[in-house]
């Protein structure tokens, strides 16, 4: 794998840091998870132990004193608050060592996940995810206008923070592994959620036509009921997609209604639009709706659930679901793959550790790495990396935005015939501003500091 030689000691607790450890494991790292004397509380979170098994597959578990492991550790994962039973002095020393960029002995990268990050007036305040959703502003954007806001379920904020923690660890390790200087990665759940569970409202408020107040609306079409008791997710972001959907529905008589070509226009006429949508969707099966929309090039998918997802042809073909080793259930494989590199073979999740047992033997010394001459420290970890960015809209440019922030030179490629479509998600229209394609807050949010050709 990519990080076969990376050693990670996980001294954390909670879903976010556990997911970070899982992603590093998927990349090939040797992850050792420290558990308190009574075992990781997550082991008891569900009667079948499925969540713990999913997060801790192919890892080892130890208990007792973690200090003997630290001299040969590359990356340490911490969480705030410190898990019960872990010596706070050990955590403080790890933070201080990383902040001072001290070389070995000791881990070169320390990653800490907390609710708000360190250094602000609320440092140390432990807030659960629903409260963080409210504080981030994400809560105000979900639900129907005039009704109570809706919390996003499933622990998505924790997963997002965990993804950033793993990404931060890998990025810091790229430099620390060359320089021999320790680095600290401070992950704030709040900030990770603000980056991913909102569409940059603070930025949009400062662009032409933007608004500072919350405007909550439900996308129409969205998740629509079908005649066989299921739902299909339909999205018409562009006017062309909406008109294509009308054609698929046999409602070409509405294609000249310009108000309905916009999401806000359809929202303002919600009762009328929902009526004509449901007349069509509820008279067909989910597969029929999916086929009709796909033929018209309208984004569509059956809304999946635990029963349906393993049956979807795309997921089956890509072997997304695999059998959990040592158990009878299926689980997702790693969420990424590399060309020419096989997926990591999965091993069962570890049993509760026995103090001073066979798995409590620390790693061998890292003296061979200490002997290497440290390289110069760049201003940012990816300084000198050159990237050609052929991506568009949101997910690709968001990924390359990370590379820019970490110091890479990213050149975005567009054409006059096919510019990045998110340029046109602006509050000003061509009739008011000839350069409206430069006024999209969403475009600026994910393309800052890139060059363009």
Can you offer a commentary on this structure?
- With 453 residues, the chain is α/β, with parallel strands linked by helices.
- Helix content is 32%, strand content 12%.
- It contains 16 helices and 14 strands.
- The protein has a six-stranded parallel sheet with strand order 3-2-1-4-5-6, sandwiched between helices. A three-stranded antiparallel sheet has the order 7-8-9, with helices on one face. A three-stranded parallel sheet has the order 12-13-14, covered by helices on one side.
- α1 links the parallel β1 and β2.
- α1 crosses α6, α5 packs across α7 and α6 packs across α7.
Which structural traits does this protein have?
453 residues, alpha/beta, 6-stranded parallel sheet, globular
**Whole-number radius of gyration?**
25 Å
Q: List how many beta strands DSSP finds.
A: 14
Structural class: alpha/beta
* Low-confidence spans: none
**Total number of helices:** 16
The biggest beta sheet is recorded as: 6 strands, parallel
Shape: globular
Share in helix:
25-40%
State the gist of this model.
This protein has 453 residues and is α/β, with parallel strands linked by helices. It contains 16 helices and 14 strands. The strands form four sheets. Strands 3-2-1-4-5-6 form a six-stranded parallel beta sheet, sandwiched between helices.
């Amino acid at each position: 794998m990519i990080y076969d030689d990376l050693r990670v000691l996980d001294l954390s607790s909670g879903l976010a840091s556990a997911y970070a450890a899982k992603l590093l494991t998927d990349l090939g790292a040797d992850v050792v998870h420290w558990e308190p004397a009574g075992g990781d509380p997550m082991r008891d979170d569900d009667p079948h132990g499925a969540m713990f098994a999913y997060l801790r597959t192919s890892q080892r578990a130890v208990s007792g004193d973690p200090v003997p492991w630290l001299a040969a550790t590359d990356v340490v994962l911490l969480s705030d608050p410190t898990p019960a039973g872990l010596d706070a002095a050990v955590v403080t020393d790890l933070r201080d060592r990383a902040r001072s960029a001290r070389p070995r002995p000791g881990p070169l990268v320390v990653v800490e996940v907390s609710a708000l990050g360190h250094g602000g007036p609320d440092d140390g305040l432990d807030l659960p995810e629903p409260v963080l959703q409210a504080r981030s502003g994400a809560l105000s954007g979900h639900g129907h206008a005039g009704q109570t806001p809706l919390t996003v379920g499933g622990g998505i904020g924790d997963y997002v923070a965990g993804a950033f923690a793993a990404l931060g660890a890998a990025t810091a390790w790229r430099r620390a592994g060359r320089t021999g200087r320790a680095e600290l990665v401070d992950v704030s759940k709040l900030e990770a959620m603000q980056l991913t569970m909102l569409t940059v409202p603070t930025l949009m408020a400062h662009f032409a036509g933007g608004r500072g107040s919350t405007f909550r609306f439900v996308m129409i079409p969205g998740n629509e009921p079908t005649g066989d008791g299921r739902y299909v997710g339909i999205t018409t972001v562009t006017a062309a997609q909406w008109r294509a959907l009308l054609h698929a529905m046999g409602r070409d008589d509405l294609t000249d209604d310009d108000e309905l070509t916009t999401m806000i226009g359809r929202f303002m006429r919600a009762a009328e639009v929902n009526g004509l949508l449901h007349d069509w969707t509820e008279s067909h099966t989910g597969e029929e709706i999916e086929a009709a929309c796909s033929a018209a090039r309208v984004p569509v998918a059956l809304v999946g659930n635990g029963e349906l997802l393993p049956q979807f042809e795309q997921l089956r073909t890509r072997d997304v679901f695999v059998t959990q080793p040592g158990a009878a259930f299926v689980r997702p494989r790693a969420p990424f793959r590399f060309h020419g590199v096989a997926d990591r073979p999965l091993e069962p999740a570890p049993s509760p550790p026995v103090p001073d047992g066979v798995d409590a033997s620390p790693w061998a010394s890292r003296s061979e790495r200490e002997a290497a001459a440290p390289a110069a420290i760049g201003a940012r970890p990816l300084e000198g990396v050159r990237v050609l960015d052929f991506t568009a809209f949101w997910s690709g440019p968001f990924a390359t935005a990370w590379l820019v922030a970490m110091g890479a030179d990213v050149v975005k490629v567009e054409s006059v015939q096919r510019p990045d479509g998110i340029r046109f998600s602006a509050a000003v229209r061509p009739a008011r501003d000839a350069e409206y394609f430069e006024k999209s807050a969403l475009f600026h949010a994910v393309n800052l500091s890139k060059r363009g050709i």
